[in-house]
């Protein structure tokens, strides 16, 4: 682009708003993905949430498969699979199938969060009576990487096993997170890193995580540091209209007595999370750090973010409680950067 080479992508949560059904929410995701491709967006990711009455994307693998069939160019993937709940081998099989169906278009983002309330985490285990899985997230990520690229060492107890069907172009792996710990994980594995500001809303933590990732990145893995930011973004015809939509967005975080913190969509969900955790807890509700404005204003703000964080790509998360207005926000964003490219 003439003034900016920032890539624009979308992270969609299949939100459910009053008066809509779950089927409506998923149809909206399909429509948004197909139009995002037409508007020139680079990739389209869907999230994983369980037991929610607000967001309907509980199975990103299934939704990704459908979106790949509905599109032809745009990259499609998970943002992300909550690997702690699953067998790395089975995740590799799922995404190897997808990578064979749409070569070169499949992304596999990995998240470390629970993806739901404590009871849903319990339900995702093989047996409700079992304790936490023995393998850590780093161990599972390493195993997933081996299976995706068919690189089990001879010393591995499963040496010779393949996550069939092996694709010519395996899904690209990304690490998603909201803390410095996730940044360290991505750096140690030499993988691209996505900081999810729409879940954290603490820009200082984002800056620290990005700096940690770059400082710690393991160049011996054969890659180079790649930072992407998943940001709340809202565009409208005027700055005032966009500000009104942005003011409705809140970030609700619960901190358990054990020190663990989680983001929930509502105050009610945070209270229920605390109740299910059976720990003492504190809840913090704050204004979301939303990039908002008219197309010109929002483009200027995103260009500044690109310069400040030295990033190549933004995953826009737009939370307007009306699908047509949400769709229009993404259209305005795509057009704003297309105009820059054409100038």
CATH superfamily of the largest domain: Luciferase-like domain
Overall residue-averaged pLDDT value: 92
Q: Which structural class matches the secondary elements?
A: alpha/beta
* Count of beta strands: 12
Shape: globular
Helix content: 40-55%
Q: Under the CATH scheme, which architecture of the largest domain would be assigned?
A: Alpha-Beta Barrel
Number of helices: 12
CATH class of the largest domain: Alpha Beta
Number of domains: 2
Order of helices and strands: EHEHEHEHHEHEHHEHEEHEEHEH
Biggest sheet record: 8 strands, parallel, barrel
Strand content: 15-25%
**Biggest sheet strand line-up:** 1-2-3-4-5-6-7-12
CATH structural fold name of the largest domain: TIM Barrel
Unreliable segments of 5+ consecutive residues: 127-133
State the end-to-end distance: 8 Å
Radius of gyration: 20 Å
Please describe what this structure looks like:
- The chain has helices at residues 22-38, 60-70, 88-101, 118-124, 137-148, 180-189, 197-200, 203-216, 239-246, 267-277, 295-309, 323-342, and strands at 7-12, 43-46, 75-82, 106-111, 172-177, 193-196, 227-235, 250-256, 261-264, 281-287, 291-293, 313-317.
- α2 (60-70) runs parallel beside α3 (88-101).
- The chain is α/β, with parallel strands linked by helices.
- The longest helix is centred in the last third of the chain and has 20 residues, at 323-342.
- The strands form 2 sheets. The protein has an 8-stranded parallel β-barrel, surrounded by 8 helices. Strands 9-8-10 form a 3-stranded antiparallel beta sheet.
- The chain has 12 helices and 12 strands.
- It folds into 2 domains: 7-245 and 289-342, TIM Barrel, CATH 3.20.20.30; 250-287.
């Amino acid at each position: 682009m003439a003034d900016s080479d920032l890539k624009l992508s979308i992270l969609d949560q299949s939100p459910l708003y009053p008066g809509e059904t779950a089927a409506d929410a998923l149809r909206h995701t399909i429509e948004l993905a197909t139009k995002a491709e037409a508007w020139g967006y680079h990739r389209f990711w869907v999230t994983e949430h369980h037991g929610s009455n607000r967001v309907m994307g509980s199975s990103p693998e299934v939704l990704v498969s459908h979106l790949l069939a509905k599109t032809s160019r745009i990259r499609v993937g998970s943002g992300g699979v909550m690997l702690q709940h699953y067998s790395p081998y089975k995740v590799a099989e799922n995404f190897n199938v997808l990578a064979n169906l749409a070569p070169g278009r499949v992304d596999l983002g990995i998240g470390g969060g629970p993806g739901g309330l404590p009871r849903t985490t319990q339900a995702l285990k093989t047996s409700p009576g079992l304790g936490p899985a023995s393998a850590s997230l780093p161990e599972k990520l390493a195993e997933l990487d081996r299976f995706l690229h068919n690189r089990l060492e001879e010393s591995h107890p499963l040496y010779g096993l393949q996550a069939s069907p092996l694709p010519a172009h395996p899904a690209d792996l990304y690490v998603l997170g909201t803390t410095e710990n996730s940044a360290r994980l991505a750096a140690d594995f030499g993988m691209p890193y996505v900081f999810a500001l729409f879940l954290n809303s603490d820009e200082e933590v984002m800056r620290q995580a990005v700096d940690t990732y770059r400082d710690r990145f393991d160049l011996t893995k054969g890659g180079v540091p790649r930072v992407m930011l998943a940001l709340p973004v809202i565009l409208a015809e005027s700055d005032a209209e966009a500000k009104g939509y942005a003011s409705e967005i809140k970030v609700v975080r619960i901190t358990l007595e054990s020190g663990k913190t989680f983001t929930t969509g509502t105050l009610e969900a945070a209270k229920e999370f605390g109740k299910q955790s059976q720990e003492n807890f504190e809840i913090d509700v704050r204004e979301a750090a939303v990039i908002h404005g008219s197309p010109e204003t929002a483009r200027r703000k995103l260009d500044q973010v690109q310069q400040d964080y030295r990033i190549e790509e933004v995953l826009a998360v737009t939370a307007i409680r009306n699908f047509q207005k949400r769709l229009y926000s993404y259209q305005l964003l795509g057009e704003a950067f297309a105009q820059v490219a054409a100038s």
